[in-house]
From TrEMBL:
Source taxonomy: Bacteria, Pseudomonadati, Spirochaetota, Spirochaetia, Spirochaetales
GO MF term (any one): sequence-specific DNA binding
Organism: Candidatus Treponema excrementipullorum
Superkingdom: Bacteria
Entry protein name: Response regulator
Sequence ranges assigned to domain HTH araC/xylS-type in this UniProt record: 247-346
Keywords assigned by UniProt, alphabetized: DNA-binding, Phosphoprotein, Transcription, Transcription regulation
Membrane-crossing segments per the record: none
Length: 361
């Protein structure tokens, strides 16, 4: 945490910098200056987290400095040091959101009081940093979508009530992480095909309800209820929504498996669905991975072509969706136990059962 000290009394400035236990609040002093103008010069080069400033100073006093920070760097906390006769004067700074006041002279007790305030500010800054990191964490979003796709209420409750996310939500006084989680939730609902008009109205009401809640605990519980409702909706719509998607997926595979460049990404693009979501619902509905199903179609087609001895094996490879004959031979043997040539010979002798073992992993 970066701290700037401002006081026209050099002895007081030096004493304060030495009396503070900087390690307690992970503090780093970025400057000691004698008035507000010098402070602004430092701030323009390096913005501090906290400014500790005397009130009465020449050229620019602590009140004017507080006004400058309020106008230009509102996130910077300012703590004012005031004398006994300056209290009424200090009241003018209330409109500039001064964090606190420390009454001079600065004794050991006052230093300890100041340290407690700096510890509080440091913890607050770390919490904000955690919230900011979580709100832009793609891995967290992926994890949450995976939980929603699985329909795991236990994993969702664990996420919301324990661990880093739970702790961050309880400290999310401005609601920033909560809003991010709601946006992720509605993006997911859009992806799973929820009615767009209904979704728009629901989103508006959800955000309005969220902002009426007063405490982080209430907002956390509200978030959980919204996520659980989405899970419930997904389950109720599963047969109606997923079956047509999977049917269309199978149809496209049957039409395009002969193309060696056809893959899951192309399939998902054609269906306007993300590959992870498509893979999840396909596996959940069929019990088989898309890649396994695609491979199965290619190999079954290859087996049928191999029965016709007039078709060269290299043509069988290409017509079955394989660009590399060596790779085709390896995959074929791995699935059937014999090479394409051996399969053709054995089939001609009538000694081979057309039975490809499916890989469902």
């Amino acid at each position: 945490m970066k701290v700037l000290l401002v006081d026209d009394d050099y002895i007081a400035l030096e004493g304060l910098s030495k009396m503070l236990h900087w390690d307690k609040f992970e503090g780093q002093i970025i400057g000691c200056v004698s008035d507000g103008l010098e402070a602004i010069s430092v701030i323009q080069q390096q913005v501090p987290d906290v400014v500790i400033s005397d009130i009465k100073m020449p050229r620019m006093d602590g009140i004017e400095l507080a006004q400058y920070l309020y106008t230009n760097h509102r996130s910077v906390r300012i703590i004012l040091l005031s004398g006994h006769g300056e209290f009424e004067y200090a009241q003018k700074a209330l409109q500039y959101r001064v964090f606190s006041y420390i009454l001079k002279p600065i004794t050991r007790t006052k230093v300890e009081e100041l340290e407690e305030q700096l510890i509080h500010i440091n913890n607050e800054l770390k919490t904000k940093n955690t919230l900011r990191n979580l709100s832009s964490n793609d891995d967290l979003q992926t994890r949450i979508v995976a939980i929603l796709n699985k329909g795991s209420t236990k994993e969702l409750q664990d996420l919301v009530y324990s661990g880093e996310v739970a702790s961050a939500l309880l400290n999310d006084r401005e609601g920033t992480l909560g809003i991010t989680l709601l946006n992720w939730l509605f993006s997911h609902q859009k992806e799973i095909g929820k009615n767009q008009i209904l979704l728009s109205e629901l989103k508006k009401k959800c955000f309005e309800d969220y902002w009426t809640l007063k405490t982080p605990q209430e907002r956390r519980d509200f978030l959980l209820s919204c996520y659980l409702e989405t899970m419930s909706y997904s389950e109720s719509q599963k047969s109606e929504h997923i079956k047509p998607i999977v049917s269309r997926c199978i149809q496209i595979i049957h039409q395009q498996f002969r193309d060696p460049f056809f893959n899951i990404s192309q399939l998902a693009d054609q269906m306007n669905i993300s590959p992870p979501y498509l893979s999840t619902i396909f596996k959940k509905y069929t019990g088989q991975n898309i890649s396994s199903y695609l491979s199965q179609q290619r190999l079954t087609h290859a087996q049928n072509l191999l029965k016709d001895v007039s078709i060269p094996i290299q043509d069988v490879c290409v017509q079955s969706g394989y660009e590399d004959p060596h790779y085709f031979a390896r995959v074929f043997k791995n699935k059937t136990g014999v090479t394409p040539s051996e399969y053709r010979n054995l089939y001609g002798l009538g000694d081979f059962q057309n039975n490809v073992s499916e890989n469902k992993g």
